[in-house]
Design brief:
This protein is mainly beta. It has one domain. The chain has one helix and seven strands. The strands form two sheets. The protein has a four-stranded antiparallel sheet with strand order 2-3-6-7, with no helix packed on it. Strands 1-4-5 form a three-stranded antiparallel sheet, with no helix packed on it. It is flat and about 60 Å long.
Length: 108
């Protein structure tokens, strides 16, 4: 996951993108299930993303060009492993159900 996310960030940086309204992005941890070995867990997270991906000052009038401003929310299941160094790390994530254009996460 680290490689995938790093590649996306590097791509956005190369294109000159930035994120606006970061405070409109939030997540709610809804459940945590640790397996019997104590070394793997599944965490269900609800994400509500109202942030905007923009290319700053790129419009002819100097305003931002909006790349993505779609509000989306939904749940994902994060698979985590406890590494030998004692740090929990995410190694996979998958959607749980459909995403929505309204906030399905409730009050975080």
């Amino acid at each position: 996951m680290l490689e995938r996310n790093s590649a996306r960030i590097e791509e956005w940086n190369a294109l000159g993108y930035t994120v606006r309204d970061r405070e409109a992005f939030r997540y709610v941890i809804e459940s945590v299930e640790v397996d019997g070995s104590g070394t793997a867990a599944t965490v269900t997270v609800c994400i509500a993303d109202g942030s905007r991906l923009v290319q700053p000052n790129a419009a002819p009038d100097g305003s931002d060009v909006i790349v993505d401003d779609e509000f989306v929310s939904g749940r994902t299941a994060w698979e985590l492993r406890l590494d030998a160094d004692g740090v929990w790390r995410a190694f996979d994530t998958a959607p749980v159900g459909e995403s929505a254009s309204e906030d399905v996460c409730g009050a975080g």
